[in-house]
Structures are given as structure tokens and as C-alpha cells.
Amino acid sequence: MKHSIDALLGRAVRAGEVPGVAAMVTSRDKMLYAGAFGKRMLGGDAPMDLDTVCWLASLTKGPVAAGAMQLVERGVLDLNQPVQRWLPELGQAKVLEGFDAEGRPRLRALRNHITLGHLLTHTAGFGYEIWNAEIMKYQQATGTPGTGSGMNASLGTPLLFDPGARWNYGINLDWTGKLIEAVSGQTLGTYLAKNLFVPLGMDSTGFRITPAMRARLAKMHQRHADGALEATDREVRQDAEFESGGGGLYSSANDYLKFVRMMLNKGRADGAQVLKPETVALMARNHMGATRVTPLKAQFAALSNDAEFFPGVPKSWGLSFQINEAPAPTGRPAGGLMWGGLSNTYYWIDPHSGVGGVYLTQILPFCDVKSLPLYYAFETAVYDALKK
């Protein structure tokens, strides 16, 4: 495995396909692969390594869901109760039905309530303007700040449909973070540090970039239309009004693999039981019935390409992971959990085979034409090696 993956990732860096990449694979009880290649910044001197700090983007969602499920275990939260009990503003949410002749949004009341289960499965009705023209039009018509602005007002977008009607990727985990704060009386970062990161030894993970983390921070890179990469200063606002449960965490490959291994070990890692085995099993099950994940149609070419993992493979959603309902082309069997982040960060958890991995680059747009195929090739190399 080491020989094939080292060759794969090293070749991609030498060819200029990615500036730097860190990748790791674990079984339930031991490291199977660890490697890092290239630089933290294109043209820079600092090498990419396993402790390089990266913007996780939507890889944030898994740990935030785990934090919410800890509160479900304790009886503080309930998957099926209306969340307006704790977040009254969600009881006032509206469904967007279109726009009038003057471009003003037409809104109506919800026909049923939003639950934590809806939020964790992306079936509440929320969207992201990155992949939804209606949300973008609403923001423009009302002056609502965009996702990523760090402003509380950015969460004030309406629903696209009644809760439970279908799947749509959106700001659900930002609201889950708000829910954790409301019931715990702590900031999201404080709660996760105490209940997840510290017990797992994830000491380079947080919403705020500490001086020690910044010393190991990788730069974000933008791929332009001609394929060229350029280093940028883009990062999550450090003075944001709220900590984004949908995409605000920074971490390293070493740290994030500890979360992956904890999930493989049914909630336990290094003597710490942070989730009950039955909770981990619950999170790994399909929670939206016959509803399936649908492709994401990009609205901002600089931020995302059209996105779908494993086209043609039916995909459902757990709490809060995509589940491939049939074997994936990489060799991952059915029932695997995964997701990716806007910055071309990816991970998977395979309960059937007992393996999981994390792959970190720092490139926009999402589903990058070079980085996503490299991730697929990395995962394929893992399963090819496991067969031997």
C-alpha cells in the first residue's frame, strides 16, 4: 500500500496537479498508510506534512453531528422533536415559493416542523447559494449576507420545501451548531473541544486558528479556468459572529484520522468512549428511506464545479454522512460513509471492511478536476492493496 500510494501522490505533486497533499488510512487498531507530499503553499518552502493545518470546510459536519448525538444520548436533544423548542427562530422559518413580478420573494408558512433528524440528513429544506440559484436570488433581493460571511444573518434564508420532502444540501449543520450552543450553554468550539477533541487527542482542531496552528497552516489555492493554480489568502473569518458547524473547522490529517478511527471503533478511541456503539450504528444507517442524494449544480464556478460522488451509484444519507448503497468504483463496499469539503478535503469510513481514510488538499473550486480524481485513485489504491 505504501509503495503504490507514495508513487501516486508523489507523481501528482511533481506534475503540478496539486501543491501539497496529506493522506492517511487506518484500520480499527492500526495505521495502514500515512504520507504527505509537496508544499503548504505553491512556490513556498514549508513542506506539507501530516500535522499541516488545513481548512476542513464540510468535513466539519461529521464531528458536529457526533457532538449533537452525544446530547441525544444524554436525553438533552431528540432526533424527532421540533427544534423550535430550543431555537424559536426556526419555528418562524418560511418556505420560498418563488418571486413576484418585482423580484420580491413569495414565502409561506411551514406545513410541518424542523427536527434535528431533518438537519442531520439535509432534508430540512435549507440550501447553499453555491449550488442553488433560488437561494442566491433571495440573498440578492433581500440583502441577506452570503454563506461564509460569518454573520448570523446569513442563516436567515428560507426553506426550499417542507421539512422531510426531499434531500438538499444546505446550512443544516450550521443550525445544528446553533442547537448545540443553545442546549449546552457553551460555544460550539468549547463544547466540541471538551466532549470530542480533547478526549480523542485532537489538539490541532478548532474554529479559531491558534498561533501554534497558524505556524503549520497551508495556504488555500485557486484553480483558474486555464488549469493554473494560484495561492490565495482566503480563510474562514476569525472574527465571525458564529462558529460554523457546517464548515468552520481547521485541522490536520493526523487529527482528523482520530475521528475516523473513533467511528470505526464504535465510538471508542484510546480508552475514551465518546459515543455509544449503538449511537455510531444509528449514525451509519440510512435515515431518509427511499429518498436519494442528488447532484449539486454549481452556481459559482470559482467555488465549486458540479458535484456528485460516484455518479450512477445510489446514495442515501445517515447522521451526517453520505452512504453508498451499492459498491463504489473505488472498491469500497456498500454501506460506506463519506463526504468532502469545499477545499477539496475528503474522507471515508467503511464499517464493513473496518478501514477509513482522510485526504487533505487546499484547492478551490470543490470537486477539483485534478484533486478529486487523485482522491478516488488514493482510495482505489487502498482497496487494491487490501485485496493482495
Helix fraction by DSSP (H/I, runs of at least 4): 25-40%
Oligomeric composition of the shown chains:
single chain
Give the radius of gyration: 20 Å
Distance between the termini: 10 Å
Give the helix/strand class. alpha+beta
Strand content: 15-25%
Apparent shape? globular
User: Low-confidence stretches at least 5 residues in length (pLDDT < 50)?
Assistant: none
| Biggest sheet: strand arrangement | 2-1-15-14-13-12-11
| Sheet of most strands | 7 strands, antiparallel
Describe the structure.
This protein has 11 helices and 16 strands. The strands form 5 sheets. It has a 7-stranded antiparallel beta sheet, with helices on both faces. The mean pLDDT is 97. The chain is an alpha+beta fold and 388 residues long. Strand 11 and strand 12 (322-324) form a beta hairpin.
Short note summarizing the structure:
The chain has 388 residues and is of the alpha+beta class. It has helices spanning 2-14, 61-73, 88-91, 116-121, 133-142, 172-184, 188-200, 211-214, 253-264, 277-283, 371-387, and strands spanning 20-27, 31-38, 54-55, 94-99, 105-109, 220-223, 229-232, 250-251, 268-269, 272-273, 315-317, 322-324, 336-341, 345-350, 355-360, 363-364.
